[in-house]
């Protein structure tokens, strides 16, 4: 792998794994807990957020040289809101049922701290391509986090996965999983798993370096 490819891969993987917005940085918890009652909802919100992330970071990067520092946050919000409006209308056109299921959380992508954080911390300081790659990694990482919660909650709470029945008629759904407390339980379990894995990896590295 040549240095350029390695750098590009590192930019992408930062958000997917090392700085995953859900399991490492614990950002965007409102949509993470609210819309992940099913795999379809989780995937749809993840894709929508990724689209807004990539497009807004690309435009912020292009405008970084002539955006006054005093109004940069306002400019970022206007840019993000523009792409959120596009997503809002596209989801309405594709499926009203999905639009109703996601509710106000589509519009609330505007204030998602992941997007504004990437715009301020990365896109405003880098050229468009690295900014878009980094944003894509963050979007994919966020989508993975949503899917991790959404699939568990749907399987246990409804006995389905992406609407496809997995168990027979005798299956008793864990109703709590599709209620708000279920989101906290599943998120806590995933965070515990990631914390255990990180400590285990750190222990192995310490043993190897000893």
TrEMBL record:
The keyword Manganese does not apply. GO terms for biological process: electron transport chain. Keywords: Cell inner membrane, Cell membrane, Electron transport, Membrane, Translocase, Transmembrane, Transmembrane helix, Transport. It is a multi-pass membrane protein. The chain crosses the membrane at residues 21-40, 46-66, 73-91, 97-119, 131-151, 171-194. Pfam families: Rnf-Nqr. It is found in: Cell inner membrane; Endomembrane system. It comes from the Bacteria. The keyword Cell membrane applies. Its EC number is 7.-.-.-. One of its GO terms (cellular component) is endomembrane system. Part of a membrane-bound complex that couples electron transfer with translocation of ions across the membrane. Belongs to the NqrDE/RnfAE family. HAMAP family: RsxE_RnfE. The complex is composed of six subunits: RnfA, RnfB, RnfC, RnfD, RnfE and RnfG. This is Ion-translocating oxidoreductase complex subunit E. It comes from Sulfuritalea hydrogenivorans sk43H.
């Amino acid at each position: 792998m040549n240095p350029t490819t390695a750098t590009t891969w590192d930019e992408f993987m930062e958000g997917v794994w090392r700085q995953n917005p859900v399991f490492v940085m614990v950002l965007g918890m409102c949509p993470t807990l609210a819309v992940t009652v099913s795999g379809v909802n989780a995937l749809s919100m993840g894709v929508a957020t990724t689209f807004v992330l990539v497009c807004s970071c690309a435009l912020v990067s292009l405008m970084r040289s002539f955006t006054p520092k005093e109004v940069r946050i306002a400019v970022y919000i206007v840019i993000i809101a523009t792409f959120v409006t596009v997503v809002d209308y596209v989801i309405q056109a594709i499926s009203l049922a999905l639009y109703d299921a996601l509710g106000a959380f589509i519009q609330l992508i505007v204030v998602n701290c992941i997007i504004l954080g990437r715009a301020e911390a990365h896109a405003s300081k880098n050229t468009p391509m690295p900014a878009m790659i980094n944003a894509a990694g963050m979007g994919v990482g966020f989508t993975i986090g949503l899917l991790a919660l959404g699939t568990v909650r749907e399987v246990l709470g409804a006995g389905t996965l992406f609407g496809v029945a997995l168990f027979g008629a005798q299956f008793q759904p864990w109703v709590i999983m599709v209620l708000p407390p279920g989101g906290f339980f599943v998120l806590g379990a995933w965070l515990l798993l990631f914390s255990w894995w990180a400590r285990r990896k750190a222990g192995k590295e310490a043993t190897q370096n000893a």
